[in-house]
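In the previous chapter we treated chains in isolation. Here, by contrast, the input contains two separate entities that must be folded as one system, with a combined length of 688 residues.
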Amino acid sequence: MADIYTEGWYLEVRDAMNAKVGTMKELPPGDIQVKVEIFGDGVSPYIPDGTERHFLVKIEDGRCAWYREVDGDDPSIKLDYRFRGPARVFDEIAAGLEDPVNAALHGTVKVRGDMRFLMRQAPQVKVLLEAYATGVRTSWPLGRPPYASRTEEAVHA
Amino acid sequence: MRDAYDAIVIGAGHNGLTLGAYLARSGLEVLVLERRHEEGGGLCTEELTLPGFLHNVHANYHTFVDLAPPVHDLDVRGHGVEYVRPEVQMASIYDDGTALTVHTDLDKTCESIARFSEEDAETFRRLYGEAHGYVDLLLATLMYQPPMSVKELTRALATFGVEDRSEFLSVKLRRETINQFLDQHFTHPKVKAHLAFHGAVCAYTNDVPGLAIGFPLLVGKIDNWHLCIGGSHRLAHALWRDLAQHGGVMVSDADVRAILVEGGRAVGVRLADGTEVAARKLVASTVSVEQTFLEFLEPAAIPEELQTRVKNDVKHKDWSLFSVHLALSALPEYSAAEFDPDVNRAWVVNLGYGSLEELSAHFAGVRAGQLPEPKPNAAVNSLYDPTDAPAGYATGLLRQFAPFSIAGGGEGQWESMGHWYGRRCIEAWRRYAPNLTDDVILDWVPYTPLEIAQKLPNMVRGDWMMGEVSLANMLDQRPLPELGQYRTPVEALYMAGSTQHPHGFITFAPAYNALQVIADDLGIEAWWRRV
């Protein structure tokens, strides 16, 4: 078990994703880089209000190569997708309390990138999201969601 | 105009200019050719009545502002376009003097709906909330990328379990009409009529099977209707300016008569005066399928089967629009303002459709070539654009769903019936706004479906969406399966206008999507794909 948003946790997320996709017959070839941007919403204790934490996920031939925290945008890195949303929602996803598809469908988490690929690879995308949401046993040193002072939809543009 | 360019775009409507501007920004030498005396196509603003009164002859409603990538990518605001989003977007006035108003303020819209049905107001709030949440995701998935098939989309929606996560989205919608959707979710006839009217103005006819699939998306942007200050043509001018600033050239009065093909590849065009211009990399047509494949190309250039299918299988809308443009010395004052004062500030007003049955009956009659008893919609741009008429005066625009070909005499009858029918539309407006007496109406002109087709031949048979809006003619099936990905059987010839997915309206999407395909084919770095 690793603390949320730590090196150990990223490794566990990666391993959980790969364990899940390992059961799949067909994985799409090629590299995909996904940026996850989580902004503080005054609710999550892990990302203070007014700050952001950014993560980069590299998928190689359908498997997660690495998951790491990065500092803002690096123009030299070609992104394929960007997921952006409030910390409360991402915390709740990581805690298995919020459905990631639901968060994207209802616009709480904004998704940018080639939607055709996501739609055509729906089975694999779904497995990866499930691994993120339910595949890791996470510890929450500053408190576990759902948070008492839950606020409504602090979605930034 | 030089002898050769990298890219030649046929048609300087908003799609042609958009594609041209992107390609010019990508470093290509671009020529955009326009048959008319000015750029814009449907983005056409003219002083049709009196000097100083600006009338949007075709496109009046800009509903994809800030949702369409080109608005940002091509910096249309930086080029002088100013949009206003009217506070009272739309209204329906019913025959009993009641009225429903749609506002940019959701609470006000729900308050208005609640006067008819509190249950419907709550349903609308939930529908809007859900649809507004996913509108950008759906637009990115369904509109601003080359289309997938219905089968692929259905499979993905099933995999993601969207049906279980949504109150309103369902794969069953691909078989249902908007009427059915509204009957399932709403109770009050007037509320349903207003929502169906809103869909119809967007060309999503309420009784066409399959169009329910797009209805939640329409509701998600029901309050995103924008007016282009100074007339819709300002947008065309901005797009032209962007094209020109990046080295592109737009030539008007350039009537393309032929697309030149050598060895199965499009290599240029020939104009009516015999001038030939070479295209080094591509030719893109934004005009009609019929013009492109039956008029511009030699028969030998395309498979015989495609010619036959263009003649027989390309589907056009089965109704058009009859318009009346007016110069007024006063704003309309509706009797229904006693019920809801906000109707006097409503930009677009449905005059009289009070049930789905009325709307469906009108469309059935129109399809049979009948002129309906007018229930026009009235737009008063001057409410929100002080520049479109002299101070103290106003413009008016009446639009009536109407047939292109009138039963018993064909479309030619419009030449003799336009003024008669226009007068009837004005009388219909006056029943709801009694202050619009003859002395208030300084001048007016009808604009018939026949005139649409004459002025803009790409709008075949007055088809202002440049193709039927139905599930069978959407996504990768539009306008024909073999043309559904913007490529054609002729190498280096692309289709990039509203004949293509998604459809007409000021979406920019056909050009934007064709651009993706062209970029892939030519190896152009897609600087616009900002993830």
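The CA atoms of residues 300 and 317 of chain B lie 29 Å apart. The mean pLDDT of chain B is 97. Compare these points with the single-chain example from earlier in the chapter.
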